[in-house]
Specification:
heterodimer; A: mainly alpha; 13 helices; B: about 375 residues; alpha+beta; 6-stranded mixed β-sheet
């Protein structure tokens, strides 16, 4: 009998710990998602309704007016395109340049290879906040302050470190014999990079593209520092400037935020496989 | 079509390793040359030097009538089959084979014809649309060969192309490569650590060790007349038995005295062994030249030896006997009808016509 009760208590213990874990997971999920749900709910309400009855109440009417207001009066119709005008070139530039650097670092033995690699890694570890002032002055000196170029150039350069690090480690896992075979088949060095290495690096590139898109698209700090003109602002700083401008129209700000989130959410939904891969990329060889 | 010549080739790597040490090889047009040796002997490096994947430290490599030291790999008119096959994972079988031709701007219909011909020869026609990961190991190997064939190079290079295949497939592919060589009649240079592959396929074998060429000869000559102890031990399986011995007796009647047994030197070798009378030698005898008494062929110069059976391994068509003569262990391949058990004492017969003697100092064959 004793022999039977022991496994039973163990099984009971396991069941309990499972309930506990699930309970915790649901509680955390709820805590995480509540603000989002309330935001979605709020975006369908009118500002007067909220001012009269507060956020945590049920709406008395539902409309899409706030989204419309955010798009037109709130300026999202030009903030959102701005975000893409900044994000997409920066993304392409980062991936192109870092894949070139990574290819050289992964495949060629030359003096200083390691040093250059560590500089890239070090660059990725640098807290960008300490660069606010120098970068601001540099863009001014370069004559690109308050242009799209300021953001495109500096996002590209700041993301190069991390991307080069990740891609270099990934490219190291591609068997060298494949590249040698291409060399014997008559590929030029750039041909090996573009026709063999890049196609084989697509998983890493996709993962990085997802991560980088989110990071660059969501950037607030550099947009705040390097852009002044309202016409150039991306969604992040554009939304912030709505505060107070329209006597704190909460529903417009919230609807605007939801619109601003949509691209990253979409990217995540369609590329989440790569996103998760990206989080662990470079952590193991 | 071209021959290949290595002329005093050296390859020194950073860190002081000399991977290839003064290699001289003259490979005739249409020859099937196998470079064989244990891992780290420099055979693969030699091939990579020829392919242009490594830089030559010293010497000249000729392909046909030009020195190719500074010619990039793609212009050397060679094609290589890699150990890992090195197929392009993102391309179909067809594109894998066509890639090199496309880069050379070969006309489309010509590419199509060559790829399909190669696929036909290699039995890949139904697989042309597949990606490498959808193929078995043997099929991948054939695609790698196909990629080389379509290029119609002057020289084919093979870097251990069979070592990733299972034993049965290896034997089959070995024969296919031999057949391919016979039909293409192009120069094949083939690197392997497997002496069986070398013996079965090569027109000539180059045995290498520590970057130095040990011997270059036909498989039969290499087996019958190994030039030194290394080659003697490397070619043949199980390996040749070696006994530290002394030549004793009189000029008319010389014996190899291994301490625990004594065998008479046959008359035909007497003249050449005579200078070593009274001196130490290493006596070599292949396992297949040691027979159990009663099962020996009739036309040999036999010498009786007694030994104790240590371990028996039945191979089906023969038995490997691990024998002890005193404390010295040696191997014999005997007739499968021999019934013995570990611990038994066994009367054996050595075929003295096949005896080998080596100088213990230089390790060179005294006569072969």
């Amino acid at each position: 009998m004793a022999a039977q009760t022991l496994p039973q208590t163990r099984a009971a213990g396991r069941a309990w710990s499972r309930y506990l874990v699930y309970g915790l997971v649901y509680a955390l999920t709820l805590a995480w998602i509540t603000p989002v749900l309330v935001a979605i709910l709020t975006s369908f309400r009118s500002n007067s309704d909220i001012l009269a009855r507060g956020f945590w109440t049920l709406p008395n009417s539902i409309s899409l007016q706030s989204f419309f207001n955010a798009w037109t009066r709130g300026g999202l119709s030009h903030y959102l395109p701005n975000s893409f005008i900044i994000t997409l070139p920066a993304l392409v530039g980062t991936l192109f340049l870092s894949s070139l650097a990574a290819y050289a670092l992964a495949r060629f033995n030359f003096r200083g290879n390691r040093v250059i690699f560590f500089i890239f890694v070090g660059g990725a570890l640098l807290p960008f906040q300490i660069l606010l002032l120098p970068v601001f002055r540099l863009t001014d000196w370069l004559g690109i302050y308050n242009t799209y170029w300021a953001l495109i150039v500096f996002h590209t350069s700041f993301q190069l470190g991390f991307c080069t690090f990740v891609l270099r480690n990934y490219m190291r896992t591609i068997p060298g014999e494949i590249l040698e075979a291409a060399r014997m088949d008559g590929c030029s060095e750039f041909g090996i990079y573009s026709r063999i290495m890049l196609p084989l690096t697509i998983p890493a590139l996709a993962a990085l593209a997802t991560l980088e898109f989110t990071w660059i698209f969501n950037d607030f700090q550099w947009a705040l520092v390097l852009l002044q003109a309202d016409a150039l602002k991306p969604v992040t700083t554009g939304l912030a400037s709505l505060q107070g401008q329209y006597i704190m129209d909460w529903t417009v700000i919230i609807a605007g935020s939801l619109i601003a989130t949509a691209p990253t959410v979409l990217v995540f939904i369609f590329l989440q496989r790569y996103f998760i891969a990206g989080l662990t990329l470079g952590s193991s060889k | 079509m071209a021959g290949v010549r290595f002329e005093h080739i050296f390859k020194r790597f950073a860190g002081g390793v000399t991977a290839v040490n003064d290699l001289n090889l003259d490979i005739k047009d249409g020859e099937f040359l196998v470079l064989v040796g244990p891992s780290g002997c420099g055979k693969s490096t030699a091939l990579r030097l020829l392919a242009g994947l490594e830089e030559i430290s010293d010497g000249n490599i000729w392909i046909g009538d030009r020195v190719v030291n500074d010619v990039p790999p793609k212009d050397r008119d060679i094609a290589m089959v890699f150990q890992s096959y090195a197929l392009y994972p993102h391309m179909s079988v067809y594109d894998n084979m066509a890639f090199g031709l496309k880069l050379r701007k070969t006309p489309k219909n010509e590419i199509d014809k060559r790829v399909k011909d190669a696929a036909e020869i290699l039995g890949l026609t139904h697989l042309l649309e597949r990606k490498p990961k959808q193929l078995s190991g043997g099929q991948r190997q054939r695609v790698a060969v196909g990629r080389a064939i379509v290029r119609q190079p002057a020289v084919f290079l093979f870097d251990e192309p069979l070592s990733n295949l299972d034993a049965k497939l290896r034997v089959q592919t070995r024969a296919e490569i031999s057949k391919l060589h016979q039909s293409l009649k192009t120069t094949f240079i083939y690197v392997t650590h497997d002496q069986v592959e070398a013996m079965t396929m090569a027109s000539r074998i180059a045995v290498m060790r520590d970057g130095i060429l040990q011997q270059l000869d036909t498989p039969q000559n290499l087996y019958d007349h190994p030039g030194n102890i290394f080659t003697a031990g490397f070619i043949g399986s199980p390996a040749m038995n070696f006994f530290d011995s002394t030549i004793t007796g009189s000029p008319q009647e010389m014996y190899v005295d291994a301490g625990t047994f004594r065998v008479r030197v046959p008359q035909q070798y007497a003249a050449r062994v005579q200078p070593f009378l009274g001196k130490e030698v290493i006596f070599g005898m292949r396992p297949e030249d040691i027979h159990a008494r009663g099962f020996e062929p009739g036309n040999i110069t036999s010498a009786p030896v007694n030994a104790q059976v240590d371990v028996t391994e039945l191979m089906g068509s023969e038995i490997y006997l691990y024998l002890l003569s005193g404390k010295k262990q040696f191997v014999a391949r005997v007739d499968p009808r021999v019934r013995v058990h570990p611990g038994d004492n066994l009367e054996l017969v050595m075929n003295m016509d096949s005896m080998k003697l080596f100088d213990p100092k230089t390790e060179k064959a005294i006569y072969t």
